[in-house]
Amino acid sequence: MRMFMLKSLCIAALMLISVLTGMQLANNGIHKMKGYDDASFQNAISIEESGNNISASILGNDISSHDIAAKKKRLEENSAFNFFSSMGKKLSDGITGASEKLIQLITD
């Protein structure tokens, strides 16, 4: 049994080291593919905050806080009802109440 556990731990450690090495090699390969260090290279997501205005850029598409506020308002106007969400809330409230009562019974 000890040999099995020792072998299992060695294999798990070897796999962890292999995964970390593979991630580092992939990162180096990506930098080599680009070929140069470009300071103006855009990130996939960039967020800029100036005063009350927040602007974000996702893959080069600009999104402002006004767009987000309009989308939020439209979602609130739709007032969509999610059956599973409401059932989950009721279930969690019931479980919470039952566990509180059980704890009170045990402690009293």
Automatic annotation (TrEMBL):
Protein origin, superkingdom: Bacteria
Pfam family membership, one: DUF3679
Name this polypeptide is given: DUF3679 domain-containing protein
Natural source organism: Neobacillus vireti LMG 21834
